[in-house]
Design brief:
Elements lengths: L2 H5 L2 E7 L5 H12 L4 E7 L8 H9 L25 E4 L18 E4 L12 H23 L3 H4 L4 H8 L9
Parallel strand pairs: 1-2, 1-3, 3-4
């Protein structure tokens, strides 16, 4: 491995149903926590027109400027626009009924960290905000661990199983 290869960033794609909350938060968190080591993107199976205002409020709370974040379909990061993802993390099942991950360049490690969609929570604004905070804190804990894994672990053959285990614990949203 050359010096340049050992210093390259890992490309990570987060996918969820609407690309308005979970995947957007994950993209922002990993870009912050893994600065220099990771480059994160997000996309949705069926994206909505705008990022959730609750997700934006959380990003503002951590002083993350969300100007570069926007909802987008998978096609926006596929084909010629595919940077060569090292990891693809699905945060929700594909609600279109497709059991397989879409095709991307190379052989990215694909894992599922299925989390409840805070957009599905109904109730008072404080109840909904609490659900978003739960998702945010859960993602922050996982992504902090992920961002601090040594390079030899990230490139080990068993990395997919290790990342899947990181996503095994269930999360119930405050309701």
């Amino acid at each position: 491995m050359t010096m340049t290869e050992s210093l390259r960033a890992y490309n990570v794609l987060f996918i969820c149903a609407h690309n308005s909350a979970r995947s957007i938060l994950a993209e922002a968190l990993l870009n912050r926590l893994g600065a220099g080591r990771f480059q994160a993107w997000s996309a949705g199976f069926s994206p909505v027109p705008a990022i959730s205002p609750y997700a934006l409020a959380l990003l503002h709370k951590i002083n993350y400027a969300p100007d570069a974040l926007f909802t987008k379909p998978l096609t926006a990061v596929m084909g010629e626009k595919d940077p060569g993802f090292d990891f693809i993390i699905r945060l929700s099942p594909d609600r279109r009924g497709c059991p397989r991950a879409p095709q991307f360049k190379g052989e990215p490690v694909c894992v599922d960290w299925v989390l409840p969609d805070p957009c599905d929570i109904v109730g008072s604004s404080s109840t909904v905000a609490a659900a978003y905070a739960d998702i945010f804190n859960h993602l922050a804990a996982r992504l902090d661990t992920f961002a601090n894994l040594p390079r030899q672990v990230l490139e080990a053959p068993a990395i997919a199983a290790r990342l899947e285990r990181m996503g095994e614990e269930t999360l119930r949203l405050a309701a």
